[in-house]
Specification:
This protein is of the alpha/beta class and 218 residues long. The protein contains 6 helices and 8 strands. Helix 1 crosses helix 6 and helix 3 crosses helix 4.
Length: 218
């Protein structure tokens, strides 16, 4: 019998903006994972929602949140500018991390961040800037290279997951990994392209992420 998951719609203040999110908490969670989506995505991303559901099944809470407001998303659809504004995305992830730290539902639960695409850079920057809060990071098909020199400041154990056929992004991940001083690992999913659309590949990502967070969000 599956555990009953509590789903709560939340509105998170972010400077002059307010961000929509969904907080999902299983009974007696072993940790909480914030999802930082990437290029042109949102909390409705079917890939992130699938991974979040798997994490919930492994007794991990999840927060799926839009890093852009609806107005910003409309602008981004037109010029694709904000999805690569790593400074803005990182600022938003840091702000959400600070917000979570004072929420009753999240109190006492160790925090991890799951970043996809450009969201992976924002996740790493949040980990570097909030080392006392962010205790683990997982990147799916991410651009950790966009975090720049601050990658070396990350202390949270970091797992980089890349598709075996996503050769350009794989090299970018290797370059970023070379800067890391924290515990880290690069896992390559054979046969997978950038979006892990091939049968069974996203399930592999979800299992790797669940195992990583379960091990490091104790």
């Amino acid at each position: 019998m599956k555990a009953v998951i509590d789903h709560l719609r939340v509105l998170i203040p972010a400077g002059h903006a307010a961000l929509d999110g969904e907080l999902s908490m299983p009974p007696d969670p072993k940790g909480l994972v914030l999802f930082a989506h990437g290029s042109g995505s949102s909390r409705h991303s079917p890939r992130n929602k699938y991974v979040a559901e798997v994490l919930n099944e492994h007794s991990l809470g999840t927060l799926l949140v839009d890093l852009l407001t609806s107005e910003e998303e409309r602008e981004d659809e037109y010029n694709a500018r904000l999805r690569f504004d790593i400074g803005l995305l990182a600022e938003r992830v840091v702000g959400i991390t600070d917000w979570l730290a004072v929420q009753p539902q999240a109190t006492g639960h160790t925090l991890g961040v799951f970043g996809a695409s450009t969201g992976a850079a924002a996740a790493l920057l949040a980990a570097a800037r909030r080392p006392k809060l962010v205790k683990a990071v997982v990147s799916r098909g991410g651009r950790p290279d966009l975090a720049g020199p601050e990658t070396a400041l990350v202390r949270a154990p970091t797992l980089l997951i890349v598709g075996g056929r996503d050769t350009e992004v794989l090299q970018m991940n290797r370059n970023a990994q070379a800067l890391m001083k924290c515990e880290n690992r690069l896992d390559i999913v054979p046969g997978a392209t950038h979006l892990f659309e091939e049968p069974g590949t996203l399930a592999k990502v979800a299992k790797l992420a669940a195992d990583w967070f379960a091990a490091h969000l104790k």
